[in-house]
């Protein structure tokens, strides 16, 4: 069964991004603080690109018996570079639009269907609710990284 904190975070957590970057200019958004680490913009691109991946996974779990998924790595996804080419504003619009689709899907899926299983290569058998929790915790990790980069460049 879906619980209120999950629903609320699914609806609103992504809105934190705009609050974290509101006073930053393009140079700050694209500044590399450490070699081999993503910029703020690249973190946002990753979050934007992962939402359709998550949506696809949920849809597969709803229609297939225990589909298996590898851990997602942006570096292995050609689409990640395409997302990096969008402006930060365009990425925020994409995140908002895709999040609404995810929110509606999760909130309108019957409770028994939310118990369907997808198998993660590292974390094993997860229900759709657990996948959603994992999705939100992953996003929160990147929100913390964006906060750290916006306030001193340490991540």
From TrEMBL:
Pfam families noted in UniProt:
DinB_2 (PF12867)
The cross-references to Gene3D superfamilies, in alphabetical order and at most eight, read: dinb family like domain (1.20.120.450)
InterPro entries registered for this protein in UniProt:
DinB-like, DinB/YfiT-like
Descriptive protein name: Uncharacterized protein
Source organism of the structure? Mucilaginibacter gotjawali
Phylogenetic classification of the source organism: Bacteria, Pseudomonadati, Bacteroidota, Sphingobacteriia, Sphingobacteriales
């Amino acid at each position: 069964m879906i619980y209120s904190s999950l629903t609320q975070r699914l609806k609103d957590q992504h809105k934190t991004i705009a609050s974290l970057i509101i006073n930053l200019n393009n140079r700050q958004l694209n500044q590399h603080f450490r070699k081999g680490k993503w910029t703020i913009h690249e973190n946002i691109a990753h979050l934007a690109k992962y939402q359709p991946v998550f949506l696809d996974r949920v849809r597969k779990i709803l229609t297939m018996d225990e589909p298996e998924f590898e851990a997602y790595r942006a570096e292995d996804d050609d689409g990640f570079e395409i997302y990096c080419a969008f402006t930060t504003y365009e990425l925020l619009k994409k995140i908002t639009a895709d999040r609404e689709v995810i929110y509606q899907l999760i909130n309108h899926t019957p409770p028994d269907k939310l118990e369907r299983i997808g198998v993660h290569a590292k974390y094993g058998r997860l229900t759709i609710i657990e996948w959603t929790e994992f999705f939100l915790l992953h996003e929160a990790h990147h929100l913390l990284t964006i906060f750290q980069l916006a306030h001193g460049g340490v991540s």
